[in-house]
Amino acid sequence: MGRRVLITGVAGFWGTELARCLERSPEVEYIAGLDVRPPTADLAHTEFIRADIRNPLISKLLPQTRVDTVVHCDVLLVPEPGKAPEQLHDINVIGSLQLLAACEKTEEVRTIVVRGSSAIYGAEPNAPEFFTEDMARRFPFRTRFQRDIGELESYFENFARRFDHVSVTTLRYQPTLGTAIDSPLTRYLQHPVVPTQLGYDPLLQFVHAEDAVGALEAAVMRPVRGPVNVAGAGSVSLSRLLRLAGKVPLPIPAPLFSGALGIGGRLGLGRLPPEAVPWLRNGLTIDGTRLEEEVGFRPRSTLEAVEDFVEELHGRRVLPGLRTAATGNATDRNGRRARARARA
Amino acid sequence: MTPDRHTAQRERARRLRLDVADRSNGGEPAEEPGAGPTPEPAGRPPEQPPRERGAKPLPAAFDFMGALQGAIARGGDLPAALEGAAGALPESVRDVMHSAARRLRGEYSQDEWGFDEEFVEIVYPLFELMYDRWWRVTTTGVEHIPAHDRALLVANHAGVLPWDATMMSVAILKNHPLPRHPRFMVLDWAFRLPWASAFMRRVGGVVASPYNAIRLLEQGHLVMVFPEGTKGAGKPFSERYRLQRFGRGGFVELALRTGAPIIPVAIVGSEEIYPKLGESRLLARLSGAPYFPLTPTFPWLGLAGAVPLPSKWRIQFCEPIDLRAYGPEAAEDRALVFELSERVRETIQSAVYANLLARGSAFL
After folding, report:
1. Reported pTM
2. Helices (H), chain B
3. Cβ-defined contact of A130 to B211 (cutoff 8 Å)
């Protein structure tokens, strides 16, 4: 008998892509997708359930699907269509609580995979490089999103403690880089002139866009307990990233940086979440050994992610999936990019 | 270690501009066979070459500016324009331009810690000059540093700015037959500062954290630590060369856990570069610094007061202490850790006294 999987936030980039991957997998028998709006992509084998994750109703819906795996992709750093900025906290925290309540009611659930964030570590000047999974919450949470992520992870930890037969995996993602991804970060990097903080050159780490969902899929197929870092190996400094991308840095004195971003946002130049300010000053790197050794997934390195992103920006990579197809580790990645472009 | 050997060496250095290629150990016989064939270091710093004979500098500069303007007007990006326009310049200058353009395009390597070897080679000549001429450093015992794999260099700490770490690096790069770039632990306060944080990372500094140290050692790096921390760097001039307590002995734990040998290092001379006469609590609190030193020149002369005094230095690398026999579990043994920490401290303290005697006068 195959796996029965439920994906929350199926209309978002992550949910849709994961559903697409799982539809191709012979091990998966049934996929249900939960969201407030239907996915724009054509997911032929996914049963769409229109429901709000914050609504207690999902405790009634979930047991009926008899799923054994729940993938929580509805964790948002930025607003999405149908999910306004002021709802983010509710979706991330209350939504997760409702989901866990529903999982409690569903006897078949054995695996929960959460798409978390590396923001739980905090971008601090006195932080060591390459955080391992056991080093979370060493620094105080400074932003709303960080607090939400911290709260969310503790809910899932508690759940894992209470229900021993369920394995809960939290994937702590570094930012994803790719032109297919429409995020504040990719928009920030697409301006010809990029504001930076004067005198700071943080070490950053990214996940290749084509690997982003791969880690989720790997965690579904090979569940491990506890948090797992997802990051491309190595790091890149912001100055080098901008040079590689051929962008002109605009150094702004650090105390004025956040204000300048606010003004830029008012002028319609794109907004960065508040986490981005310390992140672009101190950087944040995490250690991806556990993902590689226990989950068995090796994402492309940070530098490869950056190089591919730059090539795509400059329009030099005509067929994005060609390289991965040639190396044989990818199935069909061409369609994804084309669709994402169409959406943009 | 006769004085005439040093004189001879200095003489030779003056003649040969004592390059990195010349790896005679200070204090060791210069023609020591153990040093072996001196390997040509990869990628010398691109020093400004003398102008080619016959190439007139001014017209060449005009041609260059013209070509650069033309290329930018045609809509090229800056690195490409620089490179194209460099054709108008003499070949030697062109090479420098090419490497500058390459760096502008981001085509240089940087390891996962942000260490940028090319950048180090660009700033190295300045530090080498400080080493040779300003502080006239005498280095001994560089052969105790293993050519491969991990080792923990433990040194006494003095001077407000990390000149001691810098000079230790130069001493290794200059004198070791197989030079490697050591990494050093920096007080996290430096990583809050603009420029300092970016610079430290590029030259091999990391935030002082046991996690960083263990990762670096496991990757087979040479890691420098200063267990005295700010207590050592911020002690008053009257207490110079008296080693402060070695923290909680964290460095011993690192060595036990990773099996890295401890190499005690005694540095003499760093205490005189900024003779700290007093400190200002108010200014320390205002600037957020761990302490704010008052020296005869700082802050009275402003930034010029930050120029270190030209004391005479000696750096001695002592015999490595191998702790592998204890095994990694011994890191939990508090008593052992304190005992070993004290042993290392005493080794460094006695080496510091010996070198103080050998040095004689502090400035001449």
Report:
1. 0.82
2. 3-16, 57-73, 78-85, 91-104, 117-129, 163-175, 196-202, 210-218, 230-233, 250-258, 281-287, 334-359
3. yes
